[in-house]
Amino acid sequence: MTQIKIEPVTRIESHGRLNLEFHDDGSINRAYFTTPVLRGFEAFLVGAPIERIPWLASRVCGVCPVSHAVSASQAIEKALNVDIPETAKVLREMLVLSQLIDSHALSFVVLSLPDLVPKDDAHSIVDIKSEYPDLFEKGMRLHTIGRSLTATMGGRNVHPVNVRLGGMGANPLLENSLDYSSLLSEAQGIVEIFLDQLKNWFEEKSDFISSIGSVPSNYMALSDNGKVSFTRGQVRLIDSGGQEIAMFDPNVYTDYIKEMTVPETFMKAPFLKSLGPEKGILRVNCLARANVNGSFGTEMADNELKELLNKWGNPLEHSLLSHWVRLIEAIYACERLQVLLDSPDAKRHDTSVPVTAKDGEAAGVLEAPRGTLFHHYAITNGFVTKANLLVATQNNQLAINDALKQSVVFGKEQGLDQDRLIRNCEMVLRAYDPCISCSTHITKVGGD
Amino acid sequence: MLEENLLQELSERLDIAIVSLSACSGCQVSILDQKEILSRMLSDIKYATTIMDARELPNVDCCLVEGAVRTDEDLAKLRDAREKSKILVALGSCASYGGIQALGNLQRTDDLLKVVTGDSGTYSDTPTVIPRLESLDRFVTIDYYIPGCPPSESVLQHALPLVLAGKEIEMTTEHRLPVCASCGRRIEHRHIESFENLTIPDEDICLLSQGYICLGSVTRGGCSAQCPSMNIACSGCRGPTDRVLIQPTHNVLRDFVSRVSHFSGRSEADVLKEIQAIPWRFFPFTFASQAMKRKPYSKIVELQAPIMKKEVMK
Prior knowledge:
The structure holds 2 protein chains of 2 kinds.
Chain A: E1 2-6, E2 17-22, E3 28-34, H1 41-44, H2 53-58, H3 65-79, H4 86-116, H5 125-131, H6 133-154, E4 163-164, E5 167-168, H7 180-204, H8 206-211, E6 218-224, E7 227-228, E8 234-238, E9 244-248, H9 253-256, E10 257-260, E11 269-272, H10 276-279, E12 282-283, H11 286-293, H12 299-312, H13 322-342, E13 360-368, E14 371-380, E15 383-390, H14 392-413, H15 418-431, H16 436-439
Helix pairs in contact in A: 4-6, 4-13, 5-6, 6-7, 7-13, 12-13, 14-15
Chain B: H1 4-9, E1 16-20, H2 26-33, H3 35-41, E2 45-47, E3 60-66, E4 69-71, H4 72-84, E5 85-91, H5 92-97, H6 109-117, E6 129-134, E7 144-146, H7 153-164, H8 173-176, H9 226-229, H10 242-246, H11 252-264, H12 268-277, H13 290-294, H14 300-304, H15 309-313
Parallel strand pairs in B: 1-2, 1-3, 3-5, 5-7
Antiparallel strand pairs in B: 4-6
């Protein structure tokens, strides 16, 4: 048995390692992705006063801090039966979708574009800058817009300050001079250009797209009456054929999902309880959101999704198609933000309600840019007594490993050299936009 | 917008690296957000695994390190970075003071080790977790600190071009003064029985004088008082002011307690007791700060003493 360790995997958020184990005859035994980073949030969130949780939870991840702050707040508000004002719901959804544009731009432009352009040996955004200066400028502009929108809604871009228990601290739309609406149109225009480009590139290498990182799996995403939603609805599970397995409230997530320890990594691996760790592998993220819902509920995003599903089948199975869906989601975010911006609730002052410290327990869920994110807290007299996080990249872990193995098998069949094999693996991994900071956080310190 | 003379500084090219230890990646994201600086320095970056395919850290002029030291692997990476760079910058509050993750130091050592071994499985091929998370200066000499969780835009725009050009940084007044200096709220003395946490503060009145634990008076400014301007109390994410850091005997906790006591009419002993009972509320970003730990009166060490959770819950 020979083992190859690629460390660090590059162009992903934080630090990860790719491990490939080969039999003596050269065939692959096992491929898996691990993380050597330890954070320990679930340990030190216990004992914290609940009013600190939104900004403590935010520090789980510097790429999707909004998702953690909002998901944690939703869990605690649910546990304490707090109804937040409609204004706060609108502002939170706007914050979440602004971050989605920001995060998808980072993933697509800065991290993955070198994999997608026709130039075969692009290794960083620096190569994009010199080879495709126009795409570079557009990508930077898109990222800047996403960033400004998030910073406006949240007070700042990384670890936004505006989320509080009971709602939002302030309504930034009332006194901000930022021309939100025209920025949204500009962002959407840029995404459409990238989408056209991507379609051409994928057309030319459609064999490759359908050959690597293609694995059957179950899919999980939030569903708001059959539409993609990032902040509302129930959790829906479908199988690899698109049939519904379950639809459930996040409070009962442990009835459906079980976590297991993987010896080589500080990241636990969830799977579907009813199907076991072999057949119960899960995928979350943009591909899963599209597969689970089949519709966004906004015009242009729905047209684009229809085209994609017609061309590549339903459910979408090829990992690399995630990039395509990611761009459609950015269009959805622009369209949906425009609707929210025009809603009367976006112009009100009542952004929060007071919260009373008492006992309770609940799980909150939302769709982070990288997939379904659960925050689960038990509270006694205003202090956290139990904390569990089930994070997007964690949910994808077993599916990522399957996709990596499949890519190696395919590469071996094609007689690819080791460098190319590894590059393909990293490419597949990046399609999942893994975020290690988020996902590495052992559960359970001393008992349950 | 950056001042033209600062942009000029960037014309002198240095080789740059960005290294990430135990962190949330937010500091790197903040750098990627500085498009003007980034577009100037992009081709100078020789190592930053988040944005480029590079697996070995080369010798560089300047290395920005985000995150704190949580494992032996973090420590090895840090020592390697120190050895290979002329200027080493602690980027963000984790690198400078340990950051929020240092709250993990509240766990007793055996509890912490249970975190590593888990209760349902054992780990192999993973790094060894060191008993206490530490800031970078516990192990190596730091040339510059750029604190903040994340470092604010104004600090990055001011400091980065200078650091990257190998020039001395002269901090602006805003960065020296506490957050309160940029907060427009007025002080109003109110009798307060105990700290307010979950109610909605009045918009124009000093949060501390309303009974909220707002750390603005002891926290480094330069953030335009973002939190108070959104009606949220300052959580101290930028760490202590220069005044606190420079004076070895400056007792920041006592400072804070006497201010609260003055505003609220409560006895200092009473206020101190309430703050010490819940370490998440006072300077939670600086628990692993070497400078703070060395202070005879900082109480940071005491605040870190193992705390029985039951006592906290009372």
